[in-house]
Design goal:
This protein is an alpha/beta fold and 263 residues long. The protein contains 11 helices and 6 strands.
Length: 263
């Protein structure tokens, strides 16, 4: 497809109003939408519409692909892109959806083929490959706030990390100074989580983030969007680095909801 029509098709998708059923699914399955302002909501729907149209959605393990599945997953992924200079996760051609936890041949992100290990998974993000998700968990997490846990945001944060060509917990930054600040803060915060995990201390960040720096960024992203006030309180420098990268201030959204309206 020529570049021009590709671009104009995206523009059309991103600006046309979504259907009533699309809105209804957001109301039921994406509680975070209530924290956004009118402009953010409109852009979120636009990005999600492009993701729904451009990705190949593959049903696995008896799951079916319908509008509810697509909208629920796409809006959660779209939230990450809201203020980023992005290309709609263009290295993700396919989104595979299982009904729940699934047994998948584990494949190292760098490996060319599956290894012999297998275990039960809720989701995966393959390097230059698909995102794989459990529908039960994608839906459940979209309906929850304050948990610090969101499967869709976790897996798509891995895809942002991979944009640099490495899986090193560092998505592309704008300037050299941003890279330096990112490395300084993220390294010390990762060490802090590793210590807390070894000592069995609970933190705002899930202990799974201590697995490696790639998982650390993905777990930080979950907490940043879904448990922002607690993260800002416990890890202010980490929160600030993520705020600068994503160009969003979720803690402010939570505060305004607390004071001005109930959700
Ligand atoms: Zn992960």
């Amino acid at each position: 497809m020529p570049f021009f029509s590709h671009k104009s098709r995206r523009r059309k998708l991103a600006t046309q109003p979504v259907s009533d059923s699309f809105e209804q699914i957001i109301r039921q399955n994406f509680i975070y939408d209530r924290l956004l302002d009118a402009d953010e909501r409109q852009r979120l729907r636009g990005i999600a519409s492009v993701l729904i149209a451009e990705k190949y959605w593959e049903a696995c393990g008896g799951q079916s692909i319908n509008e509810e599945v697509q909208v629920t997953i796409a809006v959660q992924a779209a939230l990450l892109l809201l203020e980023l200079d992005h290309d709609f996760f263009s290295d993700v051609q396919s989104i595979l959806v299982y009904p729940g936890a699934y047994v998948q041949q584990q494949r190292d992100m760098w490996a060319q083929g599956p290894t012999s290990d297998s275990s039960s998974n809720l989701g995966e993000a393959w390097f230059r490959g698909p995102v794989i998700l459990s529908w039960a968990d994608a839906k459940h997490h979209g309906q929850q706030l304050g948990t610090g846990h969101n499967l869709v945001m976790h897996e798509f944060a891995h895809k942002l990390d991979m944009l640099s060509g490495y899986v090193d917990g560092t998505p592309p930054q704008r300037t050299k100074a941003d890279y330096e600040r990112w490395h300084t803060v993220m390294s010390s915060e990762f060490e802090r989580l590793c210590r807390a995990t070894q000592q069995g201390r609970q933190t705002v960040l899930r202990h799974y983030g201590a697995t490696n720096v790639g998982e650390f960024f993905a777990v930080c992203t979950e907490a940043f969007f879904t448990n922002a006030l607690a993260l800002q309180n416990e890890n202010p420098e980490l929160y600030e680095v993520l705020r600068s990268y994503y160009g969003q201030d979720p803690a402010k959204r939570f505060e305004s909801v607390t004071w001005h309206r109930s959700i």
